[in-house]
Design goal:
By secondary structure, the chain is α+β, with helices and mostly antiparallel strands. Helices cover 54% and strands 21% of the residues. α3 packs across α5 and α6 packs across α7. It starts with a helix and ends in a 28-residue tail after the last helix.
Length: 289
């Protein structure tokens, strides 16, 4: 019984010692073994590892590419235009020992990187005009920003994989002023277009009126010519008819006059019976052979 009572605590101590001396480094991590805060080993590969229990402890660091969103920063361009820049970066811990010694943990590292990135953004973009920052040349400026940030991040055992601008906007006051200026410009252009349209409408209308006048005059001219030609042909026909048989022609013209004078019985005339107008109302003697 006494041997059993002594053996059980020994087994518990051995089990606890083994339990606290074993640790696992996952594939997404890298580890630093510390002894009273002093780094002893750097573990970069995943697997099962051992440490001295109660004397050594392990700090795990992520070895994946991490994202960092920096707070929006106001940048003053070289032409004194203000711009709100919202950037993000991707970084990776490549030297865990330097990282641990310089910043200690990821939270501090993010804070330091945000300060460096914003400072570099102000430095690089502040040397460019606003038009450049909003054009395709911005890619070159971002490369310069990444290079500068990477140089400083190396002191923390960090590699900057990429730096990008998510959003670049004007401050609200500037946006309102620009919007009003754009609105005024569009209204001015609209007035110019309306004025040009009205001028073109007057020109087209006057041209059309002139063409209508010319066409009508030409048509009137052709009408008078054709009417004159018709009257001439009619007179020639009448002359030919009169020359062939003057008595019949006089009779025919008198019949036309009677038809117009007594149209549907609506005309009342008071004439002498022996009037020349009624000469064909009497007995018509046949023409002697």
């Amino acid at each position: 019984m006494k041997a059993g009572k002594i053996l059980i605590p020994i087994i518990i101590v051995i089990a606890a010692t083994i339990f606290f001396s074993i640790f696992i480094v996952k594939e997404v991590n890298q580890a630093i073994v510390l002894q009273f805060g002093d780094p002893k080993r750097i573990l970069l590969k995943p697997g099962l590892n051992f440490k001295i229990p109660f004397i050594q402890n392990v700090v795990f660091l992520d070895k994946r590419i991490l994202n960092l969103d920096t707070p929006p920063e106001e940048v003053i361009a070289s032409d004194q235009k203000r711009l709100i820049v919202d950037a993000f970066a991707r970084f990776q811990i490549i030297d865990p020992l330097k990282f641990y010694i310089s910043v200690g943990n990821e939270r501090v590292a993010r804070s330091r990187l945000s300060t460096i990135i914003n400072s570099r953004i102000r430095n690089v973009l502040g040397q460019q005009q606003l038009q450049t920052l909003l054009s395709q040349d911005r890619t070159k400026q971002m490369a310069l920003i990444q290079e500068g940030v990477n140089n400083e991040a190396e002191n923390f055992g960090i590699k900057i994989v990429d730096v990008r601008i998510k959003r670049a906007d004007l401050p609200q006051a500037n946006s309102d002023a620009i919007f009003r200026r754009m609105q005024t410009e569009r209204e001015r252009e609209a007035k110019e277009f309306r004025a040009k349209g009205a001028e073109m409408a007057v020109t087209i209308t006057s041209t059309a009126d002139k063409e209508v006048t010319v066409i009508l005059a030409e048509a009137q001219k052709q009408s008078e010519i054709m009417k004159g030609e018709g009257d001439g042909q009619r007179n020639n026909i009448f002359a030919d008819a009169f020359g062939q048989d003057p008595e019949f022609f006089a009779f025919y013209r008198s019949m036309q006059a009677y038809g117009k004078a007594f149209n549907a019985g609506e005309t009342s005339m008071i004439l002498s019976p022996d009037s020349e107008f009624f000469k064909f109302f009497g007995n018509i003697k046949p023409k002697s052979e």
